[in-house]
Amino acid sequence: MTLLREFRRDIAIAVVAFLVLLAIGFGIDSPWPRDFLTSIFAFGLLAMSLNLLIGYTGLVSFGHAAFFAFGGYVFGLLLQWEGFTSALGGASVPLAFVAALIGTALYSLVIGAICVRLTEIYFAFLTLAFQMFLYSVILSWVSLTGGDQGLMGGIPRPPFLGIDLGDAHHRYAACALVFVVCVLIMRIVTESPFGYTLRMIRDNAQRAAFLGVNVTRVKLICFVVAGSIAGVGGVILALFTSGAYPEWAFWAQSGEAIFMIMLGGLNVFVGPLVGAVALRILNDVVQMYTSHTEIVIGLVILFVVLGLRRGLLDFARDWWVDRQQARLAAANREGEER
């Protein structure tokens, strides 16, 4: 009953969050909130999906952005394929989305089957090697990917089911819905028995194996789920930019996702999302005053890591727990004195 109650609560929160996002996008007569939030949808899914590996499973991946780029490129290439769009018409957009999701899942399954057998630094650098391989393929296969210029000519957005993705409001609403559904799926995964199995593997993989858990299989499932959701983030960004670019598969994109997790906190579910918002705002503000963006952002991250020693939401949660415990201890002392 507790799980069912939590499931209903999470669905209610997701519905409210979606309505709030719609109110912001449709209620503010300016393109900036829609554009900013759409970018947060994409990078937030990248960071939160990576935290399924880092925060919940203890697998630090340096190459997670490969799936982000893969999803975006598959989606964009299918819609740029004239035979695909002309044959399917309005159905081409949802089918391209499904194909990008399935393709990213299969790609992450192949990569994960190799990587999850390794641990710690070996896992991290092998994922980085696969990401840089994909980056090299994107740059060298110019006839297909456009090379270092990315997908040229834009991505067609034929209407489907009354939704016109060429309209900024429709596109924003569709991206918001996909984002909320993906976050809800991750929430269900992390709060399910499978999610607690991930935590057990993170804390002590040997003990989990001793208790009968197939550690390699569970890690692989998590790897595929995380890669697939990162691919959805790439699809959202491809829709937003009407293209796909090789920088999405560069190692710095994965590093930025790790920064988001460090900044927001890896022990709170929405911590990476808060980190994505904070990093994007920080980047925009810094660019208004100086061209040395990387230096300023690096100093902020150093302050969070060395000063707070944890992410912003991790710090806030620990502060709140300590405060509650102090109040409880004070109340117990008063009761004993009486």
From TrEMBL:
What terms describe the molecular function in GO for this protein?
branched-chain amino acid transmembrane transporter activity
Provide the coiled-coil residue spans: none
Which domain of life does the protein's organism represent?
Bacteria
Primary localization class, coarse: membrane
Q: Transmembrane: is it a keyword of this entry? A: yes
Q: Name one Pfam family in it.
A: BPD_transp_2
Q: What are the protein's UniProt keywords?
A: Cell membrane, Membrane, Transmembrane, Transmembrane helix
Question: Where is this protein found?
Answer: Cell membrane
> How does the UniProt record describe the way this protein sits in the membrane?
Multi-pass membrane protein
For this record, an example GO cellular component is: plasma membrane
Q: Does the keyword field hold Transcription? A: no
Transmembrane ranges, per UniProt, are: 37-55, 62-81, 93-114, 121-142, 171-190, 220-245, 257-282, 294-312
Please give the name of this protein.
Branched-chain amino acid ABC transporter permease
The organism is Thalassobaculum fulvum
